[in-house]
Amino acid sequence: MPILPLAASLPDADLAQFGQDPWWVIVLKAVFIFLVLVLLTLFNIWFERRVVARMQHRVGPNVHGPFGLLQSLADGVKLALKEDIIPKAADKVVFLLAPVIAVVPAFVTWSVIPFGPEVSFFGERTPLQLTDMPVAVLFVMAIASIGIYGIVLGGWSSGSTYSLLGGLRSSAQMISYEVAMGLALVAVFLYAGSMSTSEIVAAQDDLWFGLILLPSFVIFVISMVGETNRAPFDLPEAEGELVGGFHTEYSSLKFALFFLAEYINLATVSAIATTLFLGGWAAPWGVEHVWAGANSGYWPLLWFFGKVFLFIFMFVWLRGSLPRMRYDQFMALGWKVLIPVSLAWIVAVATIRVISLEGDVNRTYLVAAIAVLLVITVGLMFLGDSDGEGEEAPVEADREPHDAFAGGFPVPPMPQGGAVRGGAAPLTFESGRTTVTAAAEENHE
After folding, report:
1. Where does the sequence pass through the membrane (predicted)?
2. CA distances from 33 to 3, 56, 113, 130, 139 (A)
């Protein structure tokens, strides 16, 4: 198979322009990215609480600052002033390093995210991007994977069973959905002809990849929700069975670092989805025809962060709308649905690209045939699951009642007549009399 040619790039999408900045420009860029991420985290916490409050007909934070905008800052100060506790059974060194390992990769991944084209930055011509490389997307995936170690080590080093179970869940969940996320990006590489983030943005000059590669976009969006441990996929922190998950034993600033890493990762995956599927910093389709300067200067920052906030709103909307999935359902979705569909879609995209570049086959018939095969594949997967459930139902019905005391761990017996339903029985008091305890009588005397 011949090497696919690079997609037509905009003039600003040139890797040669990176690595030429003076040292003070690089330092200022890094500081600005750090400040943007910290402020974005404070805003996202406030934004999530306000949106969920509106969805649940509540007020939300409205006291600290105008519209409650300083509530996140007040929460941060509260966390910093809380008592810092380290369990006796904890591995102290790993326990202290785990939050740092979780939060540092969250900042580093933004080093290759393009915010805009080349601009005048304090008199220097430089792109609105810290750096870029030919394998920038692989760099993002590799750095994001390191953050998993912070969560796993935090759960293991705590010396708590609950934290350990939360860390194990997190590792299984993130590894599973990173596979589907990585496969969803292969189609983008085939169409863009590059793994550089700036060149991928330039390759979407005519049409966004989110439209022409819609299955990849959908798979990536589902995978990034699972990757960030957000509802309905927040199983590592399922309070019902794990108390709080991998960070159960953490408090004060160490807990705040885990919290910071989660919200930065929320913005990171939103920025990656914007860059790879929604044209990055480019203005929405049609705006550049009406306004010639929409994609020049610092205006692309508006389009970039507008698209990022759309994804963040989607995260908040899902949290306020959907219940948490069961763990087996969640893992089955990743391994039995997303990964097989991703593999089939990669084969389809590669076939279309090769035929469109070399072959004489009618592309319309080819796309229709591939769409039919994808529908049949997804249908067979769901059909197989429903058949399996139907066969197990009669077996459950034929089982005899299980005796909880027969050689097993003793459990409290059920009340006579079955479980109690409804509220507790109302309390009744004798009219006209007041009950006084012995302690109250002594105090009265």
Report:
1. 23-47, 93-113, 133-154, 175-195, 207-226, 255-278, 298-318, 330-352, 364-383
2. 36, 34, 10, 9, 18
